[in-house]
Lipoprotein
Amino acid sequence: MKRLLASVALMTLVTACATPYRPIPFDRATSGISTIQVVEDAVPAKSNVRKLATNGQNMASATGGLGLAGLVVGLAAAGIEAGIADNQNKKINGALESQKFDGEAVFDAAFEAELKAQNFDIAVNKTARAENHGMVVIAPQPDAAAGTAVLDINGYAYGYQQVGGTKNWRPYVVVKLMMYDAKDPKNVLLDNQVEYNAVAPVPLTVNVPVDETYTFESAEAIAADPVKATEGLTKAIEASARAAAQLLK
């Protein structure tokens, strides 16, 4: 009970302290950036199902407006849902693996092609990403050449999502971008995010509309058609990568 109440208190505190997200646009004309070091491991190895209420919240958050009782119900329901989602993940990822799907390779190819088309010199930054696939901490590079930036592009969430308990399962992708001056990482050159198939779009960020061709009635239907499932997720990741690269123009 103490652990549950602590979780409720934390969720309430986070909600109360939340502030609007304010992106930082990249100004290429004044930045002088010509070389971008891209942090490796942009996309997790496996996709993940996501289930949202129609307002874009997850199940536990959606019950938050009901007060303490609503939060307790939401937390309990989330525990049950986690087991269901785990089983659905196994089915969907099994289908993708049967097609040798590689989300990282798909993303990297599309993103790097766009950057090269914009005449950036591309290099690799070897900063290790944590197991939870969070954003990395960039160390200063005093010897970096002038005009060098480090880009942490993190496609931390992708897969198939169901919204509002409907039978519509479609691809989704969320990509977070942070770019820093290589010599002085305290100088943030870009802070934004791209979301493919956003349910509740975040103001001032990039939202890519879903291709409804790739709609399935259930996780089982996705698993039963691995070719179409892989094609839909591949197109979603490619579209997200291209949209992310546009933020660097």
Summary: Confidence is low (pLDDT under 50) at residues 1-16, 59-76. The longest strand covers residues 148-163. Strands lie at 35-39, 50-52, 121-125, 148-163, 169-181, 188-196, 206-208. The radius of gyration is 20 Å.
